[in-house]
Amino acid sequence: MSQNNGDTLTARGPDLTSINNRDPWEDARMKLKPSTPTRKPKPPKPENAITIGVSARVLFNMEKEQQIYEQQGLEDYIKYQVEHETQPFSPGPAFSFVKALEAVNTQLRELYPDSEELFDVVLMTNNHAYVGLRLINTINHHQLFIERFCMTGGNSPIGYLKAYHTNLYLSSDPDKVREALEEGIAAATMFTQEKITEVSDTQLRVAFDGDAVLFSDESERIYKAHGLDKFFEHEKAHENKPLDHGPLKCFLEALGKLQKKFYGKGQRMDCPIRTYLVTARSAASSGTRALKTLRSWGLEIDEALFLAGAPKGPMLEKIRPHIFFDDQMFHVEGAAEIGTVACHVPYGISQAMPKKGINDKETSSAPK
Amino acid sequence: VGVAFPLLQALQRVNGRLLEENPSESLLFDVVLITSDSQQQQQSSRIISNTRHHGLEISRFCFSSEEDFTESLLKNNVHLFLTTDRDEAAQASQKGVFSALLNGKVASSEQLRVVFCGDAVIRTDAEPPSASQDAAQSFWAQLGEMRRRFGMLDSPLSLVLLTSRGGRESCGTALQTLRSRGVNMDEAYSLAGAPRSPILSLLRPHFLLINHLED
C-alpha cells in the first residue's frame, strides 16, 4: 500500500477541464498544490497532545462563500467552492493563533525531540468533503501543519471533538460552541475582524478574562443580582474560598503544562508561552480571591491585570495577545476594535443579560 | 435478527428512494443471501419465510457447498460480498470477488453509510490491479453513480472517506482519485495515525470497504 507523502507532487497550472483519457492518478497529482517539501514530523497521539479543534471559517476567511451559502443554498455553495478549488482562502481570525502554536511546537521539538506533548491542530468542519480539496490546497499554500481533519458533511462535529480529546474548540458557530461547552470542552466563538494588529512571532500570548471564563460565574451572578457593593463585600468575605472553575480553566492548565517544559530547560524568563488574566476585578479587593483561586488550583498566570472596571482595550493593545477569551460580547467587541483577536465564551449569567456599558458597572446598581 | 438486518433495511430504503426519483430506475441494490452451512441449508424454507416475515427483500437464495461458494458468488455476478467471517472474505477476495467485513456492531442510522478506507484507494502505477481491485473499483463507481441520483441534502446514502495512516495529502489524493472515477464523497476524515475505533464508532458504517482486509 503506497502513500503519497507530498514530496513528489509537481503541480503546475491547474487544468480543471480535461480529465478525459489521462490516468486519474496523474490528474490527482497535478491538481493538488504542493505542500512544503520538507520531511514532515509525525502528528502526536491525541491523548498526549494539546488538541485544538478549529472550524474552517475561523481558520480561513470564507465570508464570500458563506454569503453564497446563505443566499443561494448548499448546491450553489458547493459548486462555487469546487470551481475555485485551486484558489486558496485568505487567513481567518484563528490563523495567527494557529501559526503561533506551530512556532511553539517547533521549539518544543528542539528541546524534547521524542515527546508527544505538543499542540495538535485539527480541522473540525461541518463542510462536505467537496470542499475538502480547496481546504487542503489552502493548508498547503499557507504551509500550515494540519494533518488531521473531520469534514462531517453536515453532521455535528461534537462527538469527534471528544474522540480527539480536544482541549480547545474554536468555531464561528455559537451553537456548536455551546454544545462543546456543555460537553466540558473549552470552546469559544470567533468572529471575522476588520482589524488585526501585529502580534509576536516568537512568543504565544494567551489572555483570559476571569469570571465566567477561568472561573465560574458565581460572583458575576452576585454582582448582577445585588450590585457592585454587594459583590465587593462577598468577594472579601470569601477571599480564601476558591472560586469554582470556569470553562477555560483546563486550557490554562494545558498551557501551564507546556510552560513547565520550557522552564525545565531554563527558559522561564523568555518562555515561548505567556498567559495573562485581564479582569474587571480590582487589585485592591476582589482581585485577591481570583489570585488565591489560581494558586489553590496549582496554576500560574504570568501577568494579572486588574482593571477595576476600566475598558480592556488599552491593556490588550499593550499586551498584544494572539487570542483573548471573554464571556461578554461588549468586551469582545471592544477588543476587536483595537485589533485584538477576541473570542466569546458563551457561558454563564451574562448570556441572558443585555450588554452593559462600563459606566453602568462603575455607578453600580439596581438589582436585576 | 442478525448483524446484517439494519444494513438490509438501509439498502431497501435507498432502493425505495431511487424508485421514487425514477420509477424505471435500474441501478438498484440487489441482495443475494448465500450460505454454505449445511445445517442452514436444511432450514432453507424457514430462512426464506423468516426473511419474508421481517419484510426483507431478498431476490435470490443460494445454498451451496463450502467448496464452491465462491463459484456461486461469481456465477451470481456478485459485486460485493459481505460476511462477518474474515476467512470467507479472504477466500472470496482471492477469487476476484470484492469482499468486505460486515460491521459487527449493529449500525443504527437510517441512512446507508459506506466508509471507504482511503489508504486502499491509492496504489502505485507499478502494481497491476488485481481482479479484486478491479471488482472494488467497479463497485465504487456504481455506488458513486447511485449517490448522484440524490441531492446534497437528505440523501438515503452517504459516502465517507477515512484515511488512517497518511496525512492530508493522502486524503486529498484519495478524494481526487475517487472523484475522477465518478465517486464524490460526502464526508472525509484524515486520522494521520490517530486511533481508528473512536472515529469508526461515531461514523457508524454499515460496511467498511478496505483493501485486501489487511486492516
Task: Detail the topology: elements first, then pairings.
The complex is a heterodimer of chains A (368) and B (215).
Chain A: H1 24-31, E1 50-54, H2 56-59, E2 60-61, H3 63-72, H4 74-83, E3 90-91, H5 95-111, E4 119-125, H6 132-141, E5 148-151, H7 158-163, E6 166-171, H8 174-182, E7 187-190, E8 204-208, H9 218-226, H10 228-237, H11 249-263, E9 273-279, H12 286-296, E10 303-306, H13 313-319, E11 323-326, H14 329-337, E12 342-344, H15 358-362
Parallel strand pairs in A: 1-4, 1-6, 4-5, 6-7, 8-9, 8-11, 9-10, 11-12
Antiparallel strand pairs in A: 2-3, 7-12
Chain B: H1 5-21, E1 32-35, H2 38-42, H3 44-53, E2 60-63, H4 69-75, E3 81-83, H5 86-94, E4 99-101, E5 112-117, H6 131-147, E6 157-163, H7 168-180, E7 187-190, H8 196-203, E8 207-209
Parallel strand pairs in B: 1-2, 3-4, 5-6, 5-8, 6-7
Question: Briefly, what is this?
Answer:
Chain B: It comes from Pogonophryne albipinna. The complex is a heterodimer of chains A (368) and B (215). Chain A is α/β, with parallel strands linked by helices and 368 residues long.
Helix share of residues of chain B? 40-55%
Percent of residues of chain A in beta strands?
5-15%
Along the chain, the helix and strand elements of chain A come as HEHEHHEHEHEHEHEEHHHEHEHEHEH
Quickly count the helices of chain B.
Answer: 8
Strand order in the largest sheet of chain B: 7-6-5-8
General form of chain B? globular
Structure description:
The complex is a heterodimer of chains A (368) and B (215). Chain A has 368 residues and is an alpha/beta fold. Chain A has 15 helices and twelve strands. A ten-stranded mixed β-sheet of chain A has the order 5-4-1-6-7-12-11-8-9-10. In chain A, strands 2-3 form a two-stranded antiparallel sheet. The longest helix of chain A has 17 residues, at 95-111. Chain A is globular, with a radius of gyration of 22 Å. The model of chain A is unreliable at 1-31 and 357-368 (pLDDT under 50). Chain B has 215 residues and is α/β, with parallel strands linked by helices. Chain B has helices at 5-21, 38-42, 44-53, 69-75, 86-94, 131-147, 168-180, 196-203, and strands at 32-35, 60-63, 81-83, 99-101, 112-117, 157-163, 187-190, 207-209. Chain B has a four-stranded parallel β-sheet with strand order 7-6-5-8. In chain B, strands 1-2 form a two-stranded parallel sheet. In chain B, helix 5 links the parallel strand 3 and strand 4 (99-101). Chain B is globular and about 50 Å long. The two termini of chain B are 27 Å apart. The model of chain B has no long low-confidence stretch (mean pLDDT 81). Chains A and B meet through helix 1, helix 4, helix 6, strand 5 and helix 7 of A and strand 6, helix 7, strand 7 and helix 8 of B. Strand 5 of chain A pairs antiparallel with strand 7 (187-190) of chain B, so a sheet runs across the interface.
